Amino acid sequence: MLGPTYAEHARAAGIAGHKVEEVSRFDELHDADLAIVVNPNNPDGRVIERERLLELAASLRGKGGLLVVDEAFMDVGPREQSIAGDVGQGGMVVLRSFGKFFGLAGVRLGFALACETIASRLAAQLGPWAVAGPALEYGVRALGDTGWQDAMRARLGVEAARLDGLLDFHGARVSGGTSLFRYIDFDRAGSLFSALGERGILLRHFADRRNVLRIGLPGSEEEWHRLESALAAWSEVEKA
To answer: Is the pTM for the entire model greater than 0.90?
Structure first.
């Protein structure tokens, strides 16, 4: 697994009986039987180019291995780097989610893209009732509403730039992420996490990476003002 990244893939692979190793270099994935890449990555937004992923898939396919690419955030990523259209070559599976860009986390809906052989195996293991009918209807309508998708991508881009400017102004420069969340890596991360948490503004802090924070976009103008006030108060304390 290319890390650091979303932890549930490692847990699931371990439950399935795999020996799981997190690697920091993409080239090290060529030694695996099952390689997992989150693209764009959570939480830092790292993107692996499509050609490199296809080369890895071909290498794994040649020895009976498999590449799994989690594209849960690709709807707000560089879609030209997606390998969703390449899964017919075999040896790769792409995972997608409705809980991120579409804001439908509550319906617990996602899907896998794969060649016919792999897709048939997945369908057989999941059975015919893996997803509720209403959830499927939500998914079909969401995927079909391209006008909403284009408008939301534009809106998220504007709001992410606004958040970057606000954080930078108060000394917390953004170093990565996607337009749905921003990634901060600096030595005062713990102080910022505590200060905002005391005001009811929750950021994601990582126990194994104490200088790292992930922050989502405020949901309303009122929340923007709350965040701005909290950041101003924190920066004043830091300067004192």
So the answer is: yes
The number of angstroms, rounded, from the C-alpha of 85 to the middle of its chain's C-alpha atoms is 19
pLDDT, tens digit, for every residue of 30-87? 999 999 999 999 999 999 999 999 999 999 999 999 999 999 999 999 999 999 999 9
Domains in the chain and their CATH numbers?
A: 8-144 (3.40.640.10), 147-239 (3.90.1150.10)
Q: How far is the CA of 81 from the CAs of 48, 55, 69, 76, 119, in angstroms?
A: 7, 13, 11, 12, 22
At 129 the three-state DSSP class reads: coil
Fill in the amino acid letter for 27. Answer: D
- pLDDT single digits (tens) 159-173: 999 999 999 999 999
204 closest CA partner among 225, 182, 226, 220: 182
Which residues are CB-neighbours of 31 under 8 A, at least 6 positions away?
A: none
Strand spans (E) along the chain:
34-38, 66-70, 92-97, 110-114, 174-178, 181-185, 204-206, 209-216
